[in-house]
């Protein structure tokens, strides 16, 4: 008699309307060696996402807008919601028990959860798009998950976080926009779940997302244009000449999500102010590049694919270009000259 796992088709396409929980369970059965820890970790992230969704929605009512009055490791003034989101994800991942350590945009060092038997480490941008928090514009959370390489039962190490983008076992983001969505991948397909407030559930709404091969949307901060290299300026001029649509929300997660669905390119080049770019490799660029790869998009910096960059420090930055393959390839032609 075939076991449940052998009997279960792989991959399983689930209908729109499936809850996240049911989806995760079914996906777990599709993998012979799945033991449920990653599934539980994804549920913990979804739980924290629901709590932050609630805080974001009523931020203006409960004095959660404005600055915290302190700086984070990046030298940025922390917004209250940056700190709230950081605390909520840290708690959910600590109490969930599957994560032995995490790094966060809001914290300098490694956060040890005390779960030394946990198999996973997480890198997280608890609140992305901080400049848009107080003005009711879409913001989000970005996360990246690795299986630890340090022995289970011991204290996790720096090396657990320096495995490189290709070693991610899962990555995703939560978008707090006109609706709240969780989009993630474990490397096989990218699926989007919309939060139904009345049910308190994430519901499958965007199964197996495939991104257009080409596009006509370009996203960058025009205020930095004079500081871009000549090849980048030339590429942007060619987009303008072709009357592409310039769209820039100023929240990476929201700009990425739009371009993922509609076809487009997001650029954050290096500038004199940010000689290594602005965006952080481990908890902004790697996870979005991992998602992009599964949907057929490309993610690069001026010299290589983002997932091939060898990490060296926890908060390192990189120039970042991500989007429709035809658009990114064309940009690379300009950069190569
Ligand atoms: O204001 P700028 O320089 O255009 O930068 C906007 C970019 O910086 C970010 O806000 C950086 O992320 P955080 O908000 O998480 O620090 C991105 O979301 C966004 O794309
Ligand atoms: Mg960010
Ligand atoms: Mg942030």
TrEMBL record:
Q: Which Pfam families does this entry report, sorted A to Z? A: FBPase, FBPase_C
Q: In which pathway does it act?
A: Carbohydrate biosynthesis; Calvin cycle
InterPro entries the record matches? FBPase_C_dom, FBPase_class-1, FBPase_N, FBPtase, Fructose_bisphosphatase_AS
Q: Where is the Fructose-1-6-bisphosphatase class 1 C-terminal domain?
A: 212-335
Q: Where in the cell is it found?
A: Cytoplasm
The record lists Mg(2+) 1 as bound by: 105, 125, 127
- Provide the GO MF annotations for this entry: fructose 1,6-bisphosphate 1-phosphatase activity; magnesium ion binding
Fructose-1-6-bisphosphatase class I N-terminal domain segment(s): 19-207
Under the heading NCBIfam families, the entry gives: PRK09293.1-1
Per the similarity annotation, which family is this?
Answer: Belongs to the FBPase class 1 family.
Return the protein name.
Answer: Fructose-1,6-bisphosphatase class 1
Q: Which organism is it from?
A: Persicitalea jodogahamensis
Q: Which gene encodes it?
A: fbp
């Amino acid at each position: 008699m075939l076991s449940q796992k052998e009997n279960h088709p792989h991959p399983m396409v689930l209908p729109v309307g499936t809850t996240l929980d049911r989806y995760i369970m079914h996906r777990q059965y599709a993998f012979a060696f799945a033991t449920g820890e990653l599934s539980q970790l994804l549920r913990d992230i979804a739980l924290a996402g629901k709590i932050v969704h609630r805080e974001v929605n009523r931020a203006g009512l409960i004095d959660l807008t404005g600055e915290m009055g302190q700086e984070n490791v990046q030298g940025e003034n922390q917004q209250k919601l940056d700190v709230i989101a950081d605390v909520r994800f840290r708690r959910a991942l600590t109490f969930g028990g599957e994560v032995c350590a995490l790094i966060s945009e809001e914290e300098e060092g490694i956060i040890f959860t005390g779960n030394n038997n946990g198999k996973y480490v997480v890198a997280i941008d608890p609140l992305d798009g901080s400049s848009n928090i107080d003005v009711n514009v879409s913001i989000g959370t970005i996360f990246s998950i690795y299986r630890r390489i340090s022995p289970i039962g011991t204290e996790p190490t720096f090396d657990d976080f320096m495995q490189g983008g290709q070693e991610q076992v899962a990555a995703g983001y939560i978008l707090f926009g006109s609706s709240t969505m969780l989009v993630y991948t474990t490397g096989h397909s990218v699926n989007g779940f919309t939060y139904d407030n009345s049910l308190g559930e994430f519901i499958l709404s965007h199964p197996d997302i495939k991104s257009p091969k080409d596009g006509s949307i370009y996203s960058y901060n025009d205020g930095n244009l004079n500081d871009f290299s000549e090849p980048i300026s030339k590429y942007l001029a060619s987009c303008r000449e072709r009357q592409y649509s310039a769209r820039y929300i100023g929240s990476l997660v929201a700009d990425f999500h739009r371009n993922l669905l509609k076809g487009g390119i997001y650029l954050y080049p290096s500038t004199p102010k940010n000689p290594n770019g602005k965006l952080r490799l481990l908890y902004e660029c790697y996870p979005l590049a991992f998602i992009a790869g599964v949907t057929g998009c490309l993610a690069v910096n001026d010299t290589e694919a983002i997932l091939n960059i060898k990490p060296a420090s926890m908060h390192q930055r990189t120039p970042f270009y991500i989007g429709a393959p035809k658009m990114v390839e064309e940009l690379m032609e300009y950069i190569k000259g």
